[in-house]
């Protein structure tokens, strides 16, 4: 990867670390999930407003928590990527993102959009759990048919 491109990716990550998007808790949430990464100490709490009566679209999503730069940037960018997505699209995005950070493959997939900045994570196996923490919590929230809180710990 060209170094100027790497610098650009670094900029995007730092911006989301310093100014997380959709940070907080949704008053309208009908699904929630918590995630904890003991290897790094990252914690994330997701709240989602999903159109359960309709096509399952993510109407709104927010996250809270404290963790390293990678885990915060990942959660922030995940919330941006998921708004308006159906459950099927959200699961597909999880699959592609997980593949990207574990193997570095699939970086050309248009669905990933800005999430491609995490392609370099696969070079640092210890960081994979940081990058996927919010996504595993998301999957737990989507799988929870009762609408109760679940934990990925
Ligand atoms: Zn971390």
Question: How would you describe what is shown here?
Answer:
- The chain has 153 residues and is α+β, with helices and mostly antiparallel strands.
- It has a single domain, classed as Sufe protein. Chain: A (Alpha-Beta Complex).
- 43% of the residues lie in helices and 18% in strands.
- The protein is built from four helices and four strands.
- Helix 2 runs parallel beside helix 4 (125-143).
- The N and C termini lie far apart (35 Å).
- Mean pLDDT is 90; it is low at 147-151.
- It binds zinc ion.
- Zinc ion (ZN) binds at residues 37, 40, 42, 67-68, 70-71, 130.
Small molecules in complex? zinc ion
Low-confidence stretches: 147-151
Strand content: 15-25%
Distance between the termini: 35 Å
Query: In sequence order, what are the helices and strands, one letter per element?
Result: HEEEHHHE
Count of discrete structural domains: 1
Shape, principal axes of CA atoms: globular
What about the largest sheet? 4 strands, mixed
Helix content: 40-55%
Q: On the 0-100 scale, what is the average pLDDT?
A: 90
Number of helical regions:
4
Per CATH, which architecture? Answer: Alpha-Beta Complex
Query: How is the CATH topology named?
Result: Sufe protein. Chain: A
Number of strands: 4
| The CATH C-level class name | Alpha Beta
The rounded Rg comes to 15 Å
- Neighbour order of strands in the largest sheet: 3-2-1-4
Class by SSE composition: alpha+beta
Q: How are the SSEs placed, and which strands pair?
A:
Layout (H helix, E strand, L loop, with lengths): L2 H16 L12 E7 L4 E9 L7 E9 L2 H14 L4 H17 L21 H19 L6 E2 L2
Parallel strand pairs: 1-4
Antiparallel strand pairs: 1-2, 2-3
Helix pairs in contact: 1-2, 2-4, 3-4
The structure holds zinc ion (ZN).
Zinc ion binds next to helix 2.
């Amino acid at each position: 990867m060209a170094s100027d491109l790497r610098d650009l990716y670094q900029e995007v990550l730092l911006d989301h670390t310093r100014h997380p998007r959709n940070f907080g808790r949704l008053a309208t949430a009908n699904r929630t999930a918590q995630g904890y990464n003991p290897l790094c100490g990252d914690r994330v709490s997701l709240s989602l407003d999903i159109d359960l009566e309709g096509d399952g679209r993510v109407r709104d999503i927010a996250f809270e928590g404290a963790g390293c730069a990678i885990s915060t940037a990942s959660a922030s960018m995940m919330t941006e990527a998921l708004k308006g997505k159906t459950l099927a699209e959200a699961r597909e995005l999880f699959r592609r993102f997980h593949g990207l950070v574990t193997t570095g493959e699939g970086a050309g997939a248009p669905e990933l959009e800005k999430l491609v900045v995490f392609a370099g994570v696969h070079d640092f196996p210890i960081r994979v759990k940081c990058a996927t923490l919010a996504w595993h919590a998301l999957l737990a929230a989507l799988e929870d048919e009762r609408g109760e809180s679940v934990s990925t710990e």
